Amino acid sequence: MQAAAAYPPPSAPPASMFGSVPGYEGIAGGGAGGYLPPPMPAEPVAPPQPDPGQTDWSIPSLSEDVARDAFKSFAASNCCYSKSPATDGVITSMEPLNTYRYRLETFTESRSTEWAHKPHEGETADFYTQTAPRPWEIQATPPTLFSNHTEEIRVPFTSSIKECHNCHASGQMPCQECNGVGYKDCWVCHGAGSRDGEDCSRCNSTGRDSCTHCSGQGTKKCETCDGRRQLLTFIQLKVEWKNHVDDAVSQQGGAGLQAEKLSSVTGKELFKNNQYLVYPLLGFPVPEVSQASERLVGEHQARFAQSARILQQRQTVELIPITKVTYKWKGDSHVYFVLGNEHQVSADDYPATCCCVIL
């Protein structure tokens, strides 16, 4: 068997692989250019939208039967909870609590560039045949508003054909499993050729097993160029559309629930508007909602306007039905909350729990 050819260890692509492209100087030498500041918006800012005029919103009352059924379902869904408090407890009071959730969504587009390469599959090199378009001049179709999506685009007129730096244009690399020799020690005799004083029948006394990873060749196809010996190098534009969402919850009546407990429930939508840039809901009947709106609109503008292009914003106000239920069980008073249209239950002080061990 011939010894495998010696190859130097794989290296990073040399800087000479990458040309200089006007408008992309930040990624010279094969590096990444990072996020690119967007152009100034061409769309004029829309006038303020009217705030909701209704001043008296109340949560519809929850019946005792619905509250009790929700509590029973909650207890039944937890293997460590006894059902007794939910089935035997006596409801003594029910208090609806006005809870408003303000949500601001900012839908942005950001762009970044980097040098990339792929196996050359016959593509034509177009480097410098025309002037490459600047990153924000390249057309990219955004997805549905307020949804996340990423698209990678090969920048026109930046493609060159280069020899593969990993295999030095041979198309082959030493097999890592056998270190390029094509065989490994026999697993039965551990390379000795015999075992217990007898010839090893597994390897015919050679002490060697042909490497199954490279079929005994000692080399494998280079993964960088897929054995094609050449690479197509080009500038790759990465376009990311993201919907950035922030909530603020205003709880009336001292519910004291953590915001994450309300993240999976819905309520009644009181107000919604979307436009290129929204205005804070100044003068909203609930001062905490107005304050949250002003704060989040300012924060989103500061966070996203410089590094990304804001395509659209949307703000909503929801009235989330929350009912505080007080009940007695074994002479003591306890509390649970029924949340949202889904009637989810929050009961941090459930009075009858046990330790469950899952094997």
Task: Give a verbal description of the structure.
With 359 residues, the chain is mainly beta. It has three helices and 15 strands. The strands form four sheets. Strands 1, 2, 3, 4, 11, 12, 13, 14 and 15 form a nine-stranded antiparallel sheet that branches. Strands 5-10 form a two-stranded antiparallel ribbon. A two-stranded antiparallel sheet has the order 6-9. Strand 7 and strand 8 form a beta hairpin. The two termini are 55 Å apart. 25% of the residues are buried.
Helix/strand layout:
Layout: E1 32-35, H1 64-76, H2 84-88, E2 90-119, E3 149-154, E4 160-163, E5 172-174, E6 183-185, E7 194-195, E8 198-199, E9 208-210, E10 219-221, E11 230-251, E12 268-275, H3 287-304, E13 309-329, E14 332-339, E15 344-346
Antiparallel strand pairs: 1-2, 2-11, 2-13, 3-11, 4-11, 5-10, 6-9, 7-8, 12-13, 13-14, 14-15
Which key phrases capture this entry?
359 residues, nine-stranded antiparallel beta sheet, 10% helix
What is the H/E string?
Answer: EHHEEEEEEEEEEEHEEE
The largest sheet is: 9 strands, antiparallel
Structural class computed from helices and strand pairing = mainly beta
Residue-averaged pLDDT, rounded? Answer: 86
Determine the N-to-C terminus distance: 55 Å
Give the tally of β-strands.
15
The tally of helices reads 3
Kindly estimate the percentage of residues that lie in beta strands according to DSSP. Answer: 25-35%
Helix content: 10-25%
Report the principal-axis shape.
flat
Rg calc: 33 Å
